[in-house]
Request: fold
Amino acid sequence: MTDGIKRRDFLKVLGVTGAGATITGCSEPERLLPYVVAPEEITPGVATWYTTVCDGCSAQCGMWVRTREGRAVKVEGNPNHPVSQGGLCSKGHATLQHLYNPDRFHGPMIREGDRLRQGTWDEAEQLLAASIGASANLMFIGGRMGPSMSNLVDQFVASVNGTRVEYDAVSDAPLREAARLAYGAAGLPRYDIAEARLLLSFSNDFIETGSSPVAHNKGLARMNAVDAAGSKGRFVYLGPRLSTTGLNADEWIPIRPGSEAAVALGMASVIASDASAAGPYADVLRAYTPASAAQAAGVSEDAIRELAERFASESPTLAMGPGVSGHHRHATAANVAIMILNEVAGNVGRTVHYDAGVTAAASAYADMESAVGAMAAGQVGVAIVHGANPAYSMPEASGFVEAFSQAAFKVSFASAMDETAALADLILPDRHFFEAWGDSMPRQGVMALQQPVMQPVPHFDSKQAGDVLLATSAHMGNDLGAETFYDFMRNGHMEMHDASMGDFETAWHQALRDGAVEHDMAMADSAPQLQSPDAALSFDAPALDLGGDLTLLVHPSPRFGGGEFANSPWLQELPDPVSKITWHSWLEMNGNTAEQRGIRVGDIVTVTSPHGSVDVPVWIYPGIREDAVALAMGGGHTNFGRWADGSGVNALALLPSESEQPSGAMVTLATTVTVTPTGERRRLATIEGSSDQHDRPIAPAVALADLGHAEEGEHDDGHGELQELQGVGGFVPVPAEGGAATAFPLEGSRHGPYAESHELPRWAMAIDLDKCTGCSACVTACQAENNVPWVGEEQVMMGRDMNWVRIERYLEHVDATQAGELDVRMLPMICQHCANAPCEPVCPVFATYHTPEGVNAQIYNRCVGTRYCANNCPYKVRVFNWYRYMDENVPEPMNWQWNPDVTIRTNGVMEKCSFCMQRIREVENRAALEEGRPINDGEIVPACEQSCPAEAIVFGNIRDENSRVSQVVSGERTYRVLDEILNTQPAVHYLKKVTFHEIESGGHE
Amino acid sequence: MRKHWLIGGLAGVFALAGVAFVQGGSSGGGEGAVGQVEFGQPIAFPHDQHAGSEPGQNNMDCQFCHFSAERSVDAGIPSVATCWGCHIAIPGTEHPEEVAKIQGYVERDEPIPWVRIYKIADHAHFPHMRHLNAGLECQQCHGEIQEMQVLSKPDEWWTPAKELFLGQDPVWGGDNMGWCVECHRRPDENGEQQASTDCAVCHY
Reply:
């Protein structure tokens, strides 16, 4: 973005042409406000795109931001980014809502007694400088930040003789420590999931958290794909609870919490004929056998022995050690054990690399414990918190709140109120990363630039933290070498620039345009060797605090992470990929456990640990061991914004404040609990109808062994059921032209009624269920693109949720009592754009009809809201605006996010997936301007396809037999949901999931 | 046959409703003549002086100011700097006081709050560039702007009546979709329909 636009000028964009809100009423006419000086890069009505880096979590995925008239309106994955390689998660999309969060501070806030008053930046910086000058011992508590910012903070802290503490609420410290102990590695290992033929995850939820969820999700999907030789990678999940990641496994071995090390070493002992293969860990390995592993894990010895044999023979394989949900008191040792397993199976250098130096959030909680100790002892004069919210994200037992209050002067860089900022004396609201400069180094050799994509949102007088530190230093007479953070960062990059790569300016602009630069790294020639650990490691089962008879599993939420995303209504309303519950918290409990205690779904129970208790409703889940219950992080905020406060409970209230040794990570798997019904019940805000397909072929599967063996006519399409119905007189077909009444499919109906007779495209979509992981990124992407409102918890409970994409999750076979096959089907359900659509003939006003291009269109201005169409839709993909959600639920400036190319719907109007009609039109318009050239295949990319990290969705013209979508659907796995029964002839084609186990007729077990 | 009768009946009902609507509109609006806007523009901008081709007029191309009409869905409103680019040297002969207002906006660093005249509903998408590239003239929808000194809100409700009873070709139909569709339906030299009348071409 150029520096030429002033904030005032930006304000003036608001009303410009078309995109502006209509001012109605007879008192004041609508105004058109032009720019005072038009910025060169903006053409009204045409999107301007910027490349930047997502700062939502430590993965730092590449991002493209679509801006319209100077406002960011949509974010997408950058396929050119060397780490994330395209795609974006739900949280990445929701960073837009942080930008326009109405709860952001309007300016620097200065405490006066009990209240905060807004001050000026100069005043605030003077105050900070004076406070630092007046009291010794500054402590800077900082979350994850880019290399330049980190460098600046180090210099700033050094200039005032302070100390810096790194703190990440959700951290991979045990993995990093294990890599250091075992291999002397500098960062986290890099995984090549796509290459693995057998993948083991030991409680590692790599598509939800960890060093790069988007890249790992893509890797898993690629591994799952059936290759030319007709084989595919197999995924086995070992852990007490199935997370979203776990639900994608082909087998589940429900090992006891904390038994990962025993299982991994038991397996390694089978693989390594000679224990000396484990180098310095030979003695450790000798102590383990499959029998001891089976004993520790509570599963059969055969299962472990058999898995070990496959792990050795199906090379290359890959095992991943416990992530945040498995951070027990021996988590580092468990990760080392998994590294030993990878070592003996020969995976190092093939699927797992230790020389890549993946940098992710991996700070030691132990450092925070000492920081709290220092503050409590009154040894800290000025405490500065940046990019972290320890008052929420540290367990209550840590005493952070009391200790922080002991600091003489407390400063927060929070851009919106949070639990820590509420305690501060001075709040210096930082910019959102869409308004600021920065950089990131997701791994050694990859440097990505984060550039502002718009002028700061004018409602909020924010300032980039780096600039504040530089200005404060200047007030104190310290020169950190630059006046602005931009200069500081650019100078740093200029110093690092390798002259052999050409001119710096060119390289800088290239990096800004591409988003990331990958340097060739001198990779070690020889494979790294296992080293003797320089710290004591215990591979025994970790101790648990005795609080009851059920083990408490606390895991980061796929929606809220550690809680930092809780104030986004998109994410609040996003159904959890596992439970399908929106908004509030729930306790996951196995059905057998619940039955023994007389607990039903929706019963509110009190969960009590030795450290605290919470009241939470129960959701019954077969994907959790009978001796455990699970609670997600991220709920129960008290001072975090209007959507987060009071929603759910904070799982950390049940945990001790304790760090694992030697990594220093916070333990999350630490205690047992009692669960006592309170006698109260509540309705869960769930969107799930059923987790069972009830013998309908909605998400059928095919066994790998059966692929390529289907004979003509053998395929059971469920059409027999239709004939049965007809036989009993329930349905009498009218003789149709061109075929017998019972013929299926009707002649000429393959691509819809128009397709054979004209030259227009027939838009269609293919969704590969073998790749879909149910991560729900498409749900949020669609919501952002199509101005889909959120309705709130109450309305969801009434079944009025409005998402256009619904990920159906069918639990076909989930057994927590023994190791075995796992069969879970994920199916993104959107409008199927039926050629023979049941919704169309019942609309009394022709508001829904079929376009000649094969899209089932919904014309909002025609709709009178009878809802007949929704009643007649067998897929239940039509949603109705019961209220003016877009007016009533969306405060200024959250409405700045709206996509100006999509009509805002009002109450009384039905809506549904449009195949991103606005994107089709945009490409058509562009092609028409370029001498009416034809539209290229793959040029139209709906929001869901763009966002899908698993590359499961393909959109295109199915009439063109060379198009990607035609190619994809030409295989034998293709089917259309309920088509054989209802003859709806959808344009959305699904590709069956491929399982390793046999599938019974009809696609069910 | 029964169907025709039904359609006739419905048309009658709608016609009555239409009359009631128009009456309601004209009595409740508090405006003078139907469609007249009582708000003046912040600057009395004469389109004829700029774009007219009479002697003494400047014959400027519409897209000199409405710069993005050929490449964007929006035609574009000129920035204050665009006005000032010429008027820094042209003080105006008849109404220098109006021209001087531009300088005021420039100095105050403020946009000129023009009153919007032409607007179609938010639920309809009108891509300017597609129409211009199809060979349409601005005047075909907006009227002979280059001859107008003051742009006033066109008489939208009058459009279908003009068509029906007077046989006139109306410019600017506003929210009357029939006005758009009439042109989309018109056959080209080969007798083929000129543009799609699929609803989702404009409504999405």
User: Anything to note?
Assistant: The longest strand of chain A covers residues 672-681. The longest helix of chain A spans residues 121-134.
